[in-house]
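Hey, quick one: can you model this chain's 3D structure?
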Amino acid sequence: MIGKLKGTVDEIAEDHVLIDVHGVGYVAFCGARTLRNLPPLGEAAVLFIETFLREDMLRLYGFSSEVERGWFRLLQSVQGVGAKVALGVLGTLTTAELANAVALQDKAMVARAPGVGPKVAARIVAELKDKIPALSGGIDLPAGALAEPVRGGASLPVADAISALANLGYSREQAAGAVAAAVKEAGEDAASTTLIRLALKALSR
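Sure thing. Here's the predicted structure for all 205 residues.
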């Protein structure tokens, strides 16, 4: 089982990259975003790998981060989503954008990906809403966000927004700070969906 490759970029094609690791070339299939972010030919690169091994096939899929690889695995737990569609989603949306779409149940955002129709997009946002708490780490709050705690007793929209962010894997401190910043921007009467959208936007910066 190959979990990570560290070598030099030997070739970049439309759907894969060839990584030279001490003279051995490994072909890793990647999404469009990962391929665009690779360094130039001859330079060092690191890819996190998902290995698919079947009786008639051995295929490596490459990702720029462990979070991206985690989303690749999770997307394929949805009926009708295979490796090709999962790569298409990750090539169209960043992991932060995908988390936002799932949290807000924005199937139109997911449907932008090639090969994803309205029905599949609806299944993705519905089935993954409660399955992604481990995939939202590694995103820092903007400077000063935690310095603005929610004052007084939390309103129902604020509590709902904090709970939604916590379900996505953010700590209660991160969630509260981001929602506080959202309240400051949108006002105390803002709906929970507005607060979630603004908070996720702040968390993805």
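One thing worth noting: Strands lie at 4-12, 16-21, 24-29, 44-54, 57-63.
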